[in-house]
Prior knowledge:
Layout: E1 4-11, E2 14-21, E3 24-28, E4 30-35, H1 44-50, E5 55-58, H2 59-64, H3 66-75, H4 77-81, E6 87-90, H5 93-99, H6 106-115, E7 120-121, H7 134-154, E8 160-161, H8 171-184, E9 189-191, H9 195-199, H10 203-215, E10 223-225, H11 234-239, E11 244-247, H12 249-255, E12 258-261, E13 264-267, H13 279-283, H14 286-290, H15 295-320, H16 323-331, H17 335-345, H18 348-354, H19 373-381, E14 389-395, E15 408-413, E16 417-420, H20 439-455, E17 459-466, H21 473-478, E18 482-486
Parallel strand pairs: 4-5, 4-11, 5-6, 6-7, 7-8, 9-10, 10-11, 14-15, 14-17, 17-18
Antiparallel strand pairs: 1-2, 2-3, 12-13, 15-16
Helix pairs in contact: 6-7, 7-8, 8-10, 10-17, 12-15, 15-16, 16-17, 18-19
Amino acid sequence: MSSSFEILKRCASGRIGKLTTPHGVVETPTVMPVINPNIRLVSPSKMKDMGAEILITNSYIIYRSKKLADHALTRGLHSLLEYDGPIMTDSGSFQLSVYGEVEVTNEQIIDFQHKIGSDIAVPLDIPTPPDVSRDRAEEELEITTERLKNARNHLSGSTLLAGPIQGSTYRDLRTEAAKKVSEIGFDIYPIGAVVPLMESYRYADLVDVIVSSKMGLNPSSPVHLFGAGHPMMFSLAVAMGCDLLDSAAYALYAKDERYITPHGTFHLSGLKYLPCSCPVCQSYTPDEIRNSDDPVTLLAEHNLYTTFEEIRRVKQAVYDGNLLELVEMRCRSHPRLLEALERIYSYSDWLEIYDPISKSTFFYCGPESAKRPEVIRFSKRMERLNIDGSAIIRPAGSNIKNTSDFDHMLEFKPPFGAYPVELGEVYPFNAESPSVHGPESLGVALENTIRLIKLNPDAEFTFMKPDHMEHPILEKLSSIANIVNFSQ
């Protein structure tokens, strides 16, 4: 069976899609809770009630246990986990990254995943960690590529096959690896060995890894981000085009008495009140959870409720066309995420290719909004505006009369700049933005206005400057336009 991935809705590089598997259709983006076959804090059936559409477990752990392996081989993986929906299985690469070796070959673990009825199998790739030497990254990438080729040739039947993308923190190697994996042909494309980046809060480097990998893939390929467990970075991952995320954080954090929110994590001992409205938080106080018979399970359940709530919020943002607004809000929850926001907007030219041309309303959320794809697109398409004769540029929203002597009327609104007044109610110029902008947004708008004026050298422009507007670029503007002050 070959997978079918249908994209239904887009925003930035994120999308809502439908992934067809042997055990049903999964709507993406979605989170796959990680199931330890030996320890289940939350039952798979309860996870399904919470919102889980697909699970992920470790086939190597099952393979190493005679009891688990016998059950899976005779009655199937779905019977073992007591779950009738799609299940993805990892190969033991995580154990390889931790312990340096595993007691199984690539062919053996692929064959085992197929025999136990995995919906999506993963070859035994080499998870090259960040910051290793380039020689090591290239050598391990070559081994991974050979293993992927062998797995593709070895596997047949209904099981879908994932082709992990490696390359450490070398962007060109990630892109090259993605191209090679695409040429081999897989059903899912996981981006591997990124957990160390997330554990050390290197979110900006994570952006480089994801975008570089995406640049080497077919845009319609479904992408899995390994280990993306914390809800506060879901929107960022989805905006870069990740469709499947997996999370063991709900359980790992619970064991350490940590309480997950979309904005960060809190230790239970430091909480007087529970800000969530999930069934656990409605039924218990922090003290009652700590003093209960099974606080770990209660915390794991809350963490899962929060996880699924956030992925639904992300999906709604994609549907509404305001995913980047959610990204900007979430990235302000941690300084290192704010670095990631700056980094993702360094790829705005790439994001603009996939971002829909028309949405509802552009919401300005801060200085980073001046670098969004919509602003880049306007700058690229400015050449389509042909202006001759006399033109006046007034502040957007101002009620200025006596402009009949001009052939054209334009509005000025940061972070875009000047545009014909007739476009004022058209996306993205219908933007909701503050009346007074900071230097970043104002600077972009003024540079765009200067470019528009230079593209129309036969026109004479008059720029109406509010009294409160000050910026060094105004001096540059004054050399090509007549600037007049006015007070609203």
